[in-house]
Amino acid sequence: MLGLKGITKKVSNLNQMENLYHIRERFSIIHNNKIIGIQMKWEGKREKSPMLMLPALSTILNSDEWQHFKAIVTDKYQLITIDWPGFGESDKIDIHYSGTVLQETLKKAIKVIQSKNYRKLTIIAAGHSASVVLTLKDKYINTIKQIVLIPPTWRGPLPSMTGWSPKRLNIINEIVRLPIIGPMLYFINTTKVIIRFMMKRHVWLNKNDLDNDKIRKLQVLSRQKGARYASAAFVTGRLDIDNNNKWWISNTNIVKEMSTLVIPKDSPKRSLSEMEALSESIKDVLYIRSRLGCTKNSEKKSRRDYSTKL
């Protein structure tokens, strides 16, 4: 017979299975005969519709960036997050990262979700994740109820800054892969000074929140073993799905009736203009006070308005 302690433990386990709070698992994809493990997290109840939250591609961010937004929608959805290969808590092996790797990861994630929750899926995609979502076709797009694009991007930082093609910039990827030189170059680009500049320029609205402890944690995340490979691929545009915004707008038109665009009003001018051009291909558009979406420093009213849209 089970004692009180045993019964309590069994009930606790049943409740955990029912609610799926903070369950972590890994699935894998195969690229060039190499296995890449992908980190996946589940929160919320089984009976709710699934919401897949895709983080932006960034060396200093991972799926935890959704934490403050999760608290708003956790009663409405079963929440799922993943870390892209080469980022966050997913494997960071030495491969030639590309948009294809991201597409295969997303398709596999949808299959895993559908095997556990058959309801139609809501996808929230930040930054470059939006480009990956817009490649979905046929059976995958038919599993989706709605798509939310949060400051979507389609081009890597260096192609945007220089106007050069990812092919022309590929020399940087090869240098980063070199022993000694590669790690040294990456080390310089993940100093606290550089990270602070990146956060002020592109992410954080309230600069007072960027204390030394926060910067240190971001640096630790960025300097994980093998992190330089995917990071360099993103910066040089190797993870770009396409090289021009005509593809971007055309594919958005395909999902127009199921999509929402969230535009942070404090984004850099060029990014803001590109998002506003994209808004003509989107059914619903929501402006919020932030740089890259519903982060901790977004206005609470903006986050509530955002959750109401869902």
Write up this protein.
By secondary structure, the protein is α/β, with parallel strands linked by helices. The chain has helices at about 5-20, 65-75, 100-115, 130-135, 140, 155-160, 165-175, 180-190, 190-205, 210-220, 225-235, 245-255, 270-280, 300-310; strands at about 25-30, 35-45, 50-55, 75-80, 120-125, 145-150, 260-265, 285-290. The protein has a domain at about 15-155 and about 240-310: 3-Layer(aba) Sandwich (Rossmann fold). The chain has an eight-stranded mixed sheet, with helices on both faces. Helix 7 crosses helix 8 and helix 7 packs antiparallel against helix 11 (about 225-235). The longest helix has 18 residues, at about 100-115. The protein is globular. Mean pLDDT is about 85; it is low at about 1-15 and about 295-305.
